[in-house]
Design brief:
This protein has no helices and five strands. It is mainly beta and about 60 residues long. The protein has a five-stranded antiparallel sheet with strand order 4-3-2-1-5, with no helix packed on it.
Length: about 60
């Protein structure tokens, strides 16, 4: 996951994130043991759960919630 400073960190389960590639928000459902892939669930009805690389994700800003 990319932080404001541009460093990579592993997303946490339950964390609200913004997927930069899909341009949508979701909640992290699972992260593989190596921290290389995150499974993200949509916030509302819509597309099914998807996978994302941590560098594609950033924490959702307060105004996006």
């Amino acid at each position: 996951m990319t932080t404001a400073g541009g460093t990579r960190s592993t997303p946490r389960i339950g964390e609200l994130v913004y997927d930069l590639e899909r341009e949508t928000m979701g909640r992290v459902a699972y992260v593989d043991t190596g921290g290389n892939i995150a499974w993200v669930k949509p916030l509302h009805e819509g597309p099914p759960e998807w996978t994302a690389l941590p560098e594609q994700l950033r924490r959702a800003a307060d105004g996006e919630r």
